Amino acid sequence: MSYIFWLTIAVLLLIIEIAAPAFFFVFFSFSALVVAALSYFDVVYELAPQIGIFAIVAVLSLVLLRKKFRDSIQNTQSPMNATESFRLDADIPAKSEGRVTYQGSPWSAVNDTDADMKSGDTVIIARTEGVRLILRKPE
Fold first, then answer.
1. How far is the CA of 9 from the CAs of 35, 47, 80, in angstroms?
2. Is residue 103 within 8 Å of 137, Cβ to Cβ?
3. What would the pLDDT profile of 81-127 be if each residue is shown by its tens digit?
4. How far is the C-alpha of 70 from the C-alpha of 92, rounded, in Å?
5. Hey, which CATH number is domain 85-136, 3.40.50.300, 3.40.50.12710, 3.40.50.720, 2.40.50.140?
6. Which one, of 125, 12, 52, lies nearest residue 110 by Cα?
7. Among candidates 31, 23, 13, 28, which has minimal Cα distance to 68?
8. Is the predicted pLDDT of residue 55 greater than 90, yes or no?
9. How far apart, in whole angstroms, are the C-alpha atoms of residue 37 and residue 18?
10. In Å, what is the CA distance from 94 to each residue of 58, 98, 137?
11. Rounded to an integer, what distance in angstroms lies between the CA atom of residue 50 and that of residue 47?
12. How confident is the model at residue 4, as a pLDDT?
């Protein structure tokens, strides 16, 4: 039954990753899935070794894979350039972060300027940082 515990941990960690996309918790979720599989197949059935395997797999995957995956995600999710503009559907105060809808999907967006951005304003995507749009006003 301990595999259910580890599956629950994996799902909770994925929910945390989705809520706060730092590309960090996904590796701990992966580690919990590994331990769940080992527990399910009775390879490891005591809690102490399961915790040890969880920690080792989490740290190794985090250290070895995080930068590689983060770079590949940034490269595939950054087709935008500074000429792409859209209308805001929410206010974003100066030097603050907010949520916007871009191409039908919700995004975290950062107002990287000293001026407030109001709903209805046309803005330009200056760059992306992970899954966040860095916005500026057109000149």
1. 10, 14, 35
2. no
3. 556 889 999 999 999 999 998 888 889 999 989 999 999 999 999 88
4. 26
5. 2.40.50.140
6. 125
7. 23
8. yes
9. 23
10. 38, 10, 11
11. 5
12. 95
Q: Token digits for 59?
A: 């740290």
Q: Is the dihedral of CA 26, 29, 30, 31 positive or negative?
A: positive
Instruction: Write the CA distances from 117 to 45, 52, 100, integer angstroms.
Output: 55, 49, 11
Token pair for residue 37?
Answer: 């599989």
User: Which part of the chain has CATH 2.40.50.140?
Assistant: 85-136
Helix axes 47-76, 25-40, angle to 10 degrees: 140
In Å, how far from its chain's centre is CA 97?
15
How many residues in total does the chain contain? 139
